């Protein structure tokens, strides 16, 4: 095969569902099925889970950015895929159970990943797509981004998106989104606690990269310890949370990175992290 033929063959090969680019410790994962509104099909969830697994194992990755191509960040589950399963002998029950378990596992994988995951929302995040945003540790959005859990409009309450949503917004705010199925804009999403910051679209890439690099500059071990402790203590009674957090802080204090960080601060120099 000639070089030109090889290049032509490569260019015609289908793109993977998720693209990636690593720069200065910041890994950008991009959902790239805009023609399907970046729906969480089984293929998409498999691809994203695989990339997150690799990110968790790669010492070069400090922070993960999760974005998407097109006007829709993520439209939630693939309704065509769900509808096709109705033709199965059990009416689709086994398929629905498998898909929802796969989605739940993916959302929990994001929470358990030992590195911060930041959603970057430039379009519509709906249903399980809104769940995806809520499952990330942080979320940044343009002022044109919108969010909704519209399942109630089609007779399918957004019960699994509710889990992540209710851990971001207050109960009444979450219920408002779930019961009305109406979209909220970025400003409302920020007031609800669903996103952290609103960024003008023209400056998105630069601001997001700088934001992520600030976090990536910290000790990777400290980020791992802190993220795990944050989610574990959330579900504990107050006294238990303090006991647990104190024990985590003691173990953290005994790490090499904590010793280095404190020494560097006292000596007024930049710390040298080893992840130990």
Describe this structure as you would to a colleague:
The chain is built from twelve helices and ten strands. The chain has 276 residues and is α/β, with parallel strands linked by helices. It folds into two domains: 205 residues, 2-enoyl-CoA Hydratase, Chain A, domain 1; 47 residues, Lyase 2-enoyl-coa Hydratase, Chain  A, domain 2 (Orthogonal Bundle). It has a six-stranded mixed beta sheet, sandwiched between helices. A four-stranded mixed beta sheet has the order 4-6-8-9. Helix 2 runs parallel beside helix 4 and helix 10 packs antiparallel against helix 11. The longest helix has 20 residues. The N terminus is likely disordered.
Provide a short characterization of the protein structure.
The protein is 50% helix and 15% strand. With 276 residues, it is of the alpha/beta class.
In DSSP terms, counting alpha (H) and pi (I) runs of 4 or more, how many helices?
12
- Report the principal-axis shape: globular
> How many domains make up the 3D coordinates?
2
Mean pLDDT: 93
**Termini separation:** 49 Å
Low-confidence stretches: 1-10
Stated plainly, the CATH topology of the largest domain is called: 2-enoyl-CoA Hydratase, Chain A, domain 1
Please provide the ordered H/E string of secondary-structure elements.
HEEHEEHHEEHEEHHEHEHHHH
CA-atom Rg in angstroms: 21 Å
What is the spatial order of strands in the main beta sheet? 1-2-3-5-7-10
Q: Return the CATH class of the largest domain.
A: Alpha Beta
Q: Approximately what portion of the residues adopt beta-strand conformation?
A: 15-25%
* Largest pleated sheet: 6 strands, mixed
Q: Tell me roughly what share of residues is in helical segments.
A: 40-55%
Q: CATH superfamily membership of the largest domain, which one?
A: 2-enoyl-CoA Hydratase, Chain A, domain 1
| Backbone structural class | alpha/beta
| Assigned CATH architecture of the largest domain | Alpha-Beta Complex
Number of strands: 10
